[in-house]
Amino acid sequence: MTTQPIHDPRPLFALAVGQAEQQIAAVRPDELGNSTPCADYDVRALIGHMIAVLHKIAGVGAGRDVSEFPDVIDDVADTDWISAFLKARDEVDRVWADDAMLDRSVTLPWATLPGHVALDAYTHEFTVHSWDLAHATGRLSELDPDLAVQALDAFPRFAPPETRSGQSQFGPAVAVPDDADVYTRLAAYLGRDPRD
Question: So which residues are the signal peptide here (predicted)?
Answer without folding.
Answer: none
